Amino acid sequence: MKTVFLSDAHLKRSTDDRYVQLLRFLADLREGRIRSLVDAPVLGREKTQIDALYILGDFFDFWFCRPDAIHPEFQPVINALADLQKDGVRIHLCEGNHDFFLKEYFKDVLGMEVFEEWAAVDLDGLRVLVSHGDTADRSDRLYLMFRKFLRSRFFYAIQRRLPASLLWTLANMTSNVSKNLNDDNSEYLLGKMLSFAEEKWRENYDAVILGHCHKPLLRNFTVAGRERTFVTLGDWIAHYSFLYGEDKKFFLSFYPPQ
Ligand SMILES: [Mn+2]
Separation of 56 CA from ligand 1 center, angstroms? Predict the structure, then answer.
């Protein structure tokens, strides 16, 4: 099983650098090119056709779209995902704190897999937990309540009654004022995520893969005689990072920007 994981592209405008780089990356995946340390020296081959792509949240900077009203800026990247899917790559999307209500389009229309918070995946016999990670800090009750409200039927009904163009404008405004993760904040989050992973080792997971904190990190631990892997995927804003998994091994990689 050859798998690529990424998160936190926060796509907004198709002319943004992160968006352009990501489209190039997806086109490379289609060609079987993974341009980074992953390829030739490590695995000894030139082409790597992947089996699955996991997008672990905040892929879009906002997502208030209906099957009949997709934000035009998102169409190029949606086409790129659909192309990969046509080639036989299974696309899995986890919702993030910026993009939710994804099922209606990605699952019901495009037939991709969508999960709202987390999923347990079997990768070559490894038990892997994948999630955006915004719920890893269980002590942040206020955030968890707000999250619940945003995903409630009530909020769903409200946003369905507003014209899509108005929602996009509002979403754009709120995402512009929402503060960026600073270093302290992201260190704190990382600590919470590691504790979350330790809990999961006790539930016999072999790997925990999260997004959200925007730090690219891979650490291996031996717990109860077994190797466990903890990964935070980084982002496509500053790092262009992704994780490649094959045959029970994980490689944290960086896409060379052009
Ligand atoms: Mn996030």
Answer: 9
Q: What's the gap in Å between 59 CA and the centre of ligand 1?
A: 9
| Cα(46) to centroid(ligand 1), Å | 33
Instruction: Specify the amino acid at residue 163.
Output: P
Distance (angstroms) between ligand 1 centre and the Cα of 190 equals 13
- Residues 127-169: tens digit of each pLDDT: 999 999 999 998 989 989 989 998 898 888 888 888 888 888 8
- The structure tokens 């907004």 sit at 12
User: pLDDT tens, 215-244?
Assistant: 999 999 999 999 999 999 999 999 999 999
Report CA(50)–ligand 1 centroid distance (Å): 25
What's the gap in Å between 118 CA and the centre of ligand 1?
13
Query: And the tokens for 186?
Result: 């992201």
Q: Homologous superfamily of 2-254 in CATH?
A: Metallo-dependent phosphatases (3.60.21.10)
The answer to whether the pTM exceeds 0.85 is yes
% of the chain beyond a pLDDT of 70: 92
CA–centroid distance, 18 to ligand 1, in Å, is 16
Per-residue model confidence (pLDDT) at position 236? 96
Rounded Cα gap, residues 202 and 199, in angstroms: 5
The closest of 215, 211, 212, 258 to 238, measured between CA atoms, is 215
Hey, what are 66's tokens?
A: 């209906």
Residues 6+ apart with CB under 8 A from 138: 144
- Cα 134 to Cα 185: distance, rounded to the nearest angstrom: 13
